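Notebook p. 47: complex prediction with serine.
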Amino acid sequence: MVPPVTVEELRQTFLRFFEAQGHRRIPSSSLIPYGDPTLLFTTAGMVQFKPYFMGLEDAPAPRLTSIQKCFRTTDVEEVGDESHLTFFEMLGNFSIGDYFKEDAIGWAWLFMTDELDIPVERLWATVYTDDNEAFELWRRLGVPAERILRYSAEQGNYWYSGEVGPCGPCSELHYDFGETPGCAECEGESCHPDVGCGRFLEVWNLVFMTYSQDENGEKLPLPTQNIDTGAGLERIAAVLQGVRTVYETDELRGVLAEAETITDRIYDPDGDPGVLAAQRRRLGS
Ligand code: SER
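Predicted complex, structure tokens below:
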């Protein structure tokens, strides 16, 4: 089997993989959430499924998969680094009271390592501080203990759909590009995904959606235990295409090329952004 390379191949491979595991394919919903006063924009694949998680409506099937168009105002300040976009697409698989941690973790691993053929030694996992079950599940798949990190809510391993609504502890997968110049600050062994040295890219978040937070900040159990996963389409495409930034994937490279033409500047993530394309041409670079 040839792993997908282009963004479109990746979309289709993801949906087919989860359909084969019994998921129903659901189209992306609008960027403006329907009937949800808690959110201005659709920020994740789970947004259109919130009434199912909360037990307010019956889901069309207990296992769902989608590719959701997302917009995150909270990412605006980070746009321009290697991995943040305002508009992006989220690959997701969801369980509404059906499977839980074991299958969610097992399928994420199978998809990354088998379907996409990403080398296992490039993948690191994180689990919520006290989530020994998720830790053991990654271990059983062969992830070495030193590549499974326990992160707190402050480090991003507790996911909230908004100030009120479904939430739960989560477990992430990170891709390791290998040491970068930024690692000089990491002092060797303390280098890990949360340091932000540019060595790691978060590619998938698996949320064990078990609570709903109310207006007072109180967490009440949801009627069922659910799964909400979100993988970054553009980020995984960057990994598959061997580029360091989401802007260099086949989908966005054309937009960059147009921006280069309009601004007469060459995009170079490592270079001086002020160097005019005309100057570079004169310099022969
Ligand atoms: N809702 C989670 C997130 O956005 C997983 O899909 O990260």
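Notes: Strands lie at 24-26, 63-71, 87-95, 123-128, 148-151, 158-160, 165-176, 200-213, 219-232. The radius of gyration is 20 Å.
Next step: compare against the earlier run before touching the bench.
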